[in-house]
Fold this sequence. Notes:
Blueprint: H1 2-10, H2 14-18, E1 28-30, E2 34-46, H3 51-64, E3 80-89, E4 104-108, E5 115-119, H4 122-135, E6 137-139, E7 144-150, E8 152-156, E9 162-168, H5 176-188, E10 193-197, H6 227-239, E11 243-247, H7 279-293, E12 306-308, H8 317-321, H9 323-331, H10 336-353, E13 357-361, H11 362-368, E14 377-380, H12 385-392, E15 396-399, H13 402-405, H14 414-419, H15 429-432, E16 435-442, H16 452-456, H17 459-468, H18 476-492
Parallel strand pairs: 2-3, 3-5, 9-10, 9-16, 10-11, 12-13, 13-14, 14-15, 15-16
Antiparallel strand pairs: 1-8, 2-7, 4-5, 4-8, 6-7
Helix pairs in contact: 3-4, 5-6, 7-10
Amino acid sequence: MKSALLAVALGVGLSCALGVRLWPMPQAAASGSTKLALRANFTFETEFESPCLRRAIAKYRDLLLIHEPWDFGTDGQGVTTLHCLHIAVGTEDETLQLETDEAYVLSVPDDGTCAVLKAGTVYGALHGLETFSQLVIYDFESHQNILPGAPWFIDDYPRFPHRGLLLDTSRHFQPVSVIQRLIDSMSYAKLNVLHWHAIDSQSFPLESTSRPKLWTGAWSPTERYTKLDIANVVQYAKASGVRVMIEFDLPGHAASWCDGYPDVCPSDECREPLDPSANATYELLTDLLKEFTGGAAEQGILPENLFHLGGDEVNTYCWSSTSRIAKWMEDNNYTTDDAYKLIVDRAHQLVSSFGRFPVNWEEVFLHFGEQLDHRSIIHVWLNHDTLAEVVAAGYRGILSNSDSWYLDYLNTPWQNFYLNEPCEAIWKQEDQDRVLGGEVCMWGETVDASDLFSTVWPRAAAAAERLWSAREVCDTTEAELRLAWFRCLLASRGIGAAPLRNGQARAAPPGPGPCTTQ
């Protein structure tokens, strides 16, 4: 068993050595050779009174018992039977933030006594339940739920605390039910952050009670999210161990704000970036950010302590070409970069005063470097190499380099997603510790509810393993077998994941064949 555990810890021949079909690969695991059969009345036991855990148990009971097993009694037709999984959680605190403990230990004995799942928090227990569910296979010949390879011992935790998926609901509206289904699928791959890019130049679909005209910028009166919708998404995500980080992209990508409040924009003809010279701009930002944060840490409709403020692709032409803004810059001896930094700083000050850490896209760092507040978190997307500069300067960083982790790049193969190493060329441990993780990005120009899941999956799962598992787990040949199986697992759970071996993402299967060979 010791040698098997070492093999998993080092990422060496995992599938072949242990018959592992887990995704993402645990940090450490050991297995045996005994086949167990789950009793027809298999139970999940816990003394931990948590609505979150109870919902998760109900969900995984349904996932495990898709087919009604036959009950052969105590001997299981010569197969040792497993009666129960006991779940122990160390704390009743269900706070979900960047620093939340997600580790778990799963033990499955080979003598039929109860399997045990231990976790410090309920969120670690959720991950352990997902792992346990992946160990179980339905055997159609014996009509039993089989757990091969017992005894199992799995000691697991994420490599990075921020493992995200960006969903753009501005370019195309995504119904709440679709977002919730996406959250379900994220939890299967142990992704833990929904980066909700809710607003952009094209539409502003969110309800604001402090600024009720903002959602005039929605695509249509029916393509909107009420505040109750937003709260429901946040609570649904939390029950799956997923944090929701909202993005209000500013000062660029904000033309849709002008539909309801034209006084925050340069002019009717030149609508973005937001007007840095107008008091109305800062008054609106104050109202909006206070409303959605609740004005204090872990409060409000969006309790996540990371707040994304965008800041990318700021074309300042509208400032220079609008006479009143140009005069304001001249009177204050401002360059366009000075005006850009003014609005970035004001937004940072606001979210910081409301107990949040500001997150910005890479351009903000490229423009202003170490002039930024060191609470700032930089989201790198243009050039992977920038991440090394960000952390060397003392900032924390998130990686989403477009050449490897943009899901709308349909020709990017899953291998590129898998081999994209966040800490590449970052040598010092203190700098590596400032890498929070990464996100795959599902920009919405050509994605709506009809093709979302086939564009996201299975390539997002490749990045999910990079962000969860040990750095040494990086063999694409070994991973391909497990990822093909995981894609089929998603399909069995009603998630429309595209064939793994397509030349282009979301393409149809090339012809008849079994799931794992497509």
